[in-house]
Amino acid sequence: MELRRLKYMSVLAEELHFGRAAERLGIAQPALTQQIRALERELGVELFHRTKRSVKLTVVGRVTLNEAIRTLQQAEKTALVARQAGRGELGHIEIGYVGSAIFTGVLAKAISRFRVGNPLVELRLNEIGIVQQLEDVSSGRLDVGILRLPVSSLPTGVGIMSLHREPIILAIPRGHRLARQKNVELGALKSEPFVAVQIQEGSGFNAQVAQICAAGGLSPQVTQRAGQFTALAGLVAGGLGVAFVPDSLRNLRISDVVYRPLAKINQQSDLAMVYRKSERAPAVVAFLDQLKRLARTADSGLI
User: Fold this and answer.
1) Which of 68, 73, 121, 247 could form a disulfide with 6 if both were Cys (CB 3.0 to 4.6 A apart)?
2) Count of Cβ atoms closer than 10 Å to residue 15 Cβ
3) Hey, is 57 helix, strand or coil?
4) Structure pTM?
5) Which CATH number fits domain 3-82: 3.30.70.580, 1.10.3720.10, 1.10.10.10, 3.40.50.1980?
């Protein structure tokens, strides 16, 4: 059954006049007559009762008209949804992130700006470790991952791009002797107890901390570990030790914690996104483009 014939039927039912209906539809009156007859033959029923002076819907025609209108409305909705999905305005995106990504503001900015132009796209966010993110992006369970560099290896077909770079600094209890210094030498930390986050060894933030310590001949004595940077800051505030943290952790604003740069250390921590190189889903591509624009803005110092 052709949708255009249902459209012809609905217009004729409104006008109850072949001439006026044909004019509205932009077709010749004989063509409209032929299409209505073809629809009636296809359905095996009479939809309109015709005389020389009038056109009326039959009882069957009135029932059929209601269904025809619903069918046309659904077809219009289907076409609209398809066009919106094709433009990336509909769909859902699965996003994984490491906890420290929240403090940088990059993910929040990307989501906020993306939703302005794509309010109907559902964003599903889950805090996931680095190794699992890489596996899930590769397998399709995640569309985008936000993690800390470096990573030990990338699965085939997975791309990576740096989004945000920040210094690695030291979090210190407010009453600690080192809190009075403007910056801290690694040598001053040799007898200090450390607290650290439980991140996969050999990748992410811990890997960069290991590089700093190796370069400075420091073997930190880790006495406590926390699952997240927020909990880590709490351990520092409680006086259980000092901690290497990304500079953005300052945004947590815990009163009993102070932050100091590391003297003669220029190590930076990179927040990056991972994605499938073959990605074609319009909504996901649009979100990746938003992240890339933010990364370029960050490079120019405008973020």
Assistant:
1) 68
2) 16
3) strand
4) 0.71
5) 1.10.10.10
